[in-house]
Amino acid sequence: KRLILVGPPGSGKGTQSPIIKDEYCLCHLATGDMLRAAVAAKTPLGVKAKEAMDKGELVSDDLVVGIIDEAMKKPSCQKGFILDGFPRTVVQAQKLDEMLEKKGTKVDKVLNFAIDDSILEERITGRWIHPSSGRSYHTKFAPPKVLGVDDVTGEPLIQRKDDTAEVLKSRLEAFHKQTEPVIDYYSKKGLVANLDAEKPPKEVTAEVQKVLS
Ligand code: AP5
Ligand code: ZN
Ligand code: ZN
Question: Which of 46, 80, 81, 202 could form a disulfide with 39 if both were Cys (CB 3.0 to 4.6 A apart)?
Fold first, then answer.
C-alpha cells in the first residue's frame, strides 16, 4: 500500500508508523527523522534545515521534496510506503503526485490523525525519543522500562529541541495554515480516512487496521 500519515505535532504518526510498517511490510519515510539526522550530522542539508526546525517552521519545499525523491528510490520502497510528515504543503502534495505519476502509481490512502490542539502540549512535552531509530516514548502514556533508556538498544533517550510548549505554538500554526489544505487536497480525491487520534495508542492502531483491511 502507498500511505500518507497526516496530523498535527504529537498526534501519534510516529507511534503508529512502525506498527503499520511491520504489518504491511512497507518502507517508512519520516521527513522529520531524516532532517533531524541531517542536522545531527551537520550535513549541508542539515545546516540549511536547522534554523526553520528550531523555530517550528517548515523547511523549504525544495529541500524536503529532494529528500523524498531520493529516499523513494530505495528498493524497499518500490512496492509500497508510509510517508510520515510529508507532504505538508499543497506544493509538496503536487510534487509527490508528479513523482508517482512518472512511475505509474498513486497514493492509496491518507490517514488523518484528527485531534484537538489542547491535548498536544502534554504529549509533546512528555516525549522522549531514541534518536537513531526514531522510537518515541512518553513519561506518562508510554514510559520506557528504565527511565531515560531505550527498551530495544539500551541507549540513552533524548528530548527533541523543538518539543517545548513555546515552539509547539509555531508548529501548530504551521500545521493549520500550511498542512490542513493538504487534507482538503486529498479529500477532494476521496482518499482521506479520519482517525480519532485522541484515543489510547492501541485503539488508534485498531482503527488504522480497520481502514487498511
Ligand atoms: P516532524 O518530525 O514530522 O514533527 P511533527 O509533525 O511535529 O510530528 P511529531 O513527530 O511531533 O508528532 P507525531 O505525530 O509523530 O507524534 P508521536 O507519535 O511521536 O517534523 C519536525 C520538523 O521538521 C518540522 O517542524 C519542520 O521544521 C521539519 N519538517 C519535517 N517534515 C517536513 C516537510 N514535509 N516539509 C517541511 N518541513 C518539514 O507522539 C507524540 C507523543 O505522544 C509521544 O511521546 C508518544 O509516546 C505519545 N503518544 C502517541 N500516541 C498517543 C496516544 N494515542 N495516546 C497517548 N499518547 C500518545
Ligand atoms: Zn513524528
Ligand atoms: Zn485548523
Answer: 46
